[in-house]
Amino acid sequence: MRYRDYALTPGCTRTWLLVSMILSGITEASGSSTPITHEFVPRKGASYLIDVSHGGADVEVTVSAPEFGSRSFNSPLSGDELEHVLIENASDGVHRVEVVTDKTAKTSYVPVISVTEINGSGAELRAWRLMSNASEGNASGDRDRQTLAIEQYLAAATLWQRTDNQRERAHTLYAAAMLNY
Q: Which 3 state secondary structure label does DSSP give 139?
């Protein structure tokens, strides 16, 4: 399934691009999956946080953009936690978000993709950057990058503590623990 939204409004704090996409390609018998993709054109130079809610299924999020090609993300979080991807200093052109579930999943899920333009350069932005980089390291499957991801998650936890965001702090500590396990 492919969805497009070119209606990003410059200066909006939060723009929801896609809500309640049902992934119809998962079947209980085969465990196969069909990717869901969403394309959007960001405001040049802006930063965006992409959040993917995945209903408890293990998903991999791949973002393709003119400024960096294609990058895949998969945090070690489980349950109904969000996958987060930070895009900084976006370029002109179509950006594509693809969500694929673990092929062994035996249940269907309802992913929700949201793209939020974020401002600032403080601790919160640095924490999102660390979490995004750590999620990319985990998706790589490379043990050295996963070890670095643990350090990035722990550094993000410290930043979340400074911003008093206990929920994200807990997420980053849990992610580090899961990678360490």
A: helix
Q: How do the pLDDT tens digits run along the chain, 181 residues long?
A: 444 444 444 444 333 334 333 333 333 323 446 788 889 999 999 999 999 887 777 889 999 999 999 999 999 887 678 899 999 999 999 999 998 876 565 556 667 889 999 987 799 999 999 999 999 999 999 999 999 999 999 999 999 999 999 999 999 999 999 998 8
State the DSSP H helix or E strand holding residue 98, giving kind and residue range, or none if neither: strand 95-101
Q: Whole-angstrom Cα distance, residue 64 to residue 39?
A: 9
What the block records as the tokens of 109 is: 């899920």
Contacts of 87 (CB under 8 A, 6+ apart): 42, 47, 48, 49, 50, 63, 65, 95
Q: Residue for token digits 């929801």?
A: 16
SS (H, E, C) 65-77: ECCCEEEEECCCC
Predicted TM-score of the model (pTM): 0.81
Helix (H, G, I), strand (E, B), or coil: what is residue 162?
Answer: helix
How far apart CA 1 and CA 34 sit, in angstroms, is 8
